[in-house]
Write a structure and sequence with these properties.
This protein has about 425 residues and is α/β, with parallel strands linked by helices. About 30% of the residues lie in helices and about 20% in strands. The chain has helices spanning about 80, 95-110, 145-155, 165-175, 195-205, 220-225, 240-250, 285-295, 300-305, 305-325, 335-345, 380-385, 395-405; strands at about 5, 15, 30-40, 55-65, 70, 120, 140, 160, 180-185, 205-215, 235, 250-260, 265-275, 330-335, 355, 375, 390, 415, 420-425. It starts with 5 loop residues before the first strand and ends in a 7-residue tail after the last strand.
Length: about 425
């Protein structure tokens, strides 16, 4: 575990520290936002743990003024976060559909077939690789969380339970495996040693192979005030500017980029070896130019973000206080990592939310870290008939409101906290 002390100077957003950027090594001197102290976002508690001491770590986010990587220090080791994991991708219907469309599209684009190999890093419960099987494309998943990997193996998805990096890449190559396609969906942010991870992908990739990486776009995170997507298991936050630097450090090129609506606005970048014959799509230059126009090379742009997070906190608390003072019953929907950042930053506990619900049975009967809000099955909403339902995975709000449209029958309304409080009446929406 790499825990380093930082001396914080309390003037504006400039800091003095001995911490180096995890990508380029430059000294980190600028701050994006300080969300205070928070427990690990996936450390859901059993009832018998509620009286025990919880671990809290800072959520103080720094910015590199050389490569523009937005980052947390490594307060927690990956092994302590991911060896057993509470997040199963397959519980999001829209995310599985997104993965299926990707598999079908990339198979055609790259001409993948029975002699190809698609490798997904952080393959979770097989939510994505399962869609390659009926297409006849051989696959391999790499997933460090054994409990999640078991679900993938039960679906017929070959899965290696391990962390990915140079060590594992060399081992796979020794076993005769090289990848035509390497997939990393929402994993790059979760890697503290970025250079080891990317060097591993370089080793495993065939000369004309392609890497695709999906991650929340820092441009959208700041524009849409998505501060709750900051938590300890996300060590880094990326722009295309940063990805270009990262690729070049490992003798690769960005050959294409797609902008996606997932997770509040993501990028899907395509990387290839620098000496491959693949051409570069014009979209790469367009996104890079826009990022520069929007100030992603200027530290003042990052420094202004903290004020937006503070305003969102005040708005949400003002709404909840008013509703509770009026005698309204409020519950949550979902228990995602981002929800726990929001709840702890705003100090929202059972005094505001009676409970929250989640589709994942692993979380049922447990309590959210820090704030200790009980987590129940979805049908608890039907029994309680709350006046307001706070949607914590706001990136899935459309899917959730469709699923729970029947709550309009007793007059319930949905509350979306990001970018600022919005109240949605399902009775005014089509079924």
């Amino acid at each position: 575990m790499n825990i380093q002390a930082v001396e914080v100077v309390r003037d504006h957003n400039t800091i003095h520290s001995n911490v180096g950027c995890r990508l380029c090594g430059s000294r980190l001197r600028h701050k994006l936002v300080d969300l205070g102290m928070s427990p690990p976002c996936e450390s859901f508690l059993r009832a018998d743990q509620l009286d025990e001491m919880e671990r809290y770590y800072p959520l103080n986010v720094l910015v590199c003024d050389t490569c523009y990587l937005v980052q947390l220090k490594e307060y927690m080791s990956p092994d302590s976060i991911f060896s057993e994991y509470a997040y199963f991708s397959s519980f999001s219907t829209s995310w599985v559909a997104h993965a299926k469309a990707y598999c079908e599209g990339i198979t055609k684009r790259l001409g993948l077939g029975s002699n190809s190999l698609a490798v997904e890093l952080a393959s979770n419960d097989g939510y994505l690789l399962q869609h390659f099987l009926p297409l006849g494309v051989p696959v391999l998943g790499v997933e460090p969380a054994a409990n999640v990997a078991r679900s993938a193996i039960e679906k017929g998805v070959p899965t290696r339970v391990d962390f990915f990096g140079v060590r594992l890449a060399l081992q796979l190559v020794t076993e005769g495996l090289r990848a035509d396609l390497i997939i990393g969906n929402n994993v790059l942010a979760q890697v503290p040693d970025l250079n080891d991870f990317v060097a591993g992908m370089k080793i495993l990739l065939k000369p004309e192979g392609v890497i695709t990486l999906e991650f929340p776009h820092i441009e959208r995170l700041m524009a849409e005030n998505q501060f709750d997507t900051i938590y300890h298991e996300h060590f880094s936050y990326f722009s295309l500017l940063t990805i270009e630097v990262m690729a070049a450090r490992h003798r690769m090129r960005v050959i294409d980029v797609e902008e996606l609506p997932t997770h509040g606005g993501s990028l899907r970048v395509y990387l290839a070896n620098e000496d491959s014959g693949r051409s570069v799509n014009e979209r790469v230059a367009q996104v890079l130019d826009r990022e520069k126009r929007h100030g992603l090379t200027e530290m003042a742009t990052y420094a202004s973000f903290g004020q937006k997070a503070q305003r969102a906190k005040r708005d949400l608390l003002a709404f909840l206080i008013s509703a509770k003072n009026e005698g309204r019953k409020i519950c949550g929907y979902g228990a995602p990592g981002k929800g726990n950042t929001l709840l702890n930053y705003c100090a929202i506990g059972p005094d505001f939310l009676d409970f929250t619900v989640d589709r994942n049975p692993y979380k049922h009967g447990r309590f959210t870290p820090g704030m200790h809000i009980p987590i129940k099955p979805i049908d608890a909403i039907d029994h309680a008939k709350p006046d307001y339902i706070l949607i914590l995975p706001w990136n899935l709000k459309d899917e959730i409101i469709r699923q729970m449209h029947h709550t309009a029958g007793w007059g319930a309304k949905f509350v979306v906290p990001i970018p600022f409080v919005t109240v949605i009446d399902p009775s005014e929406l089509p079924k």
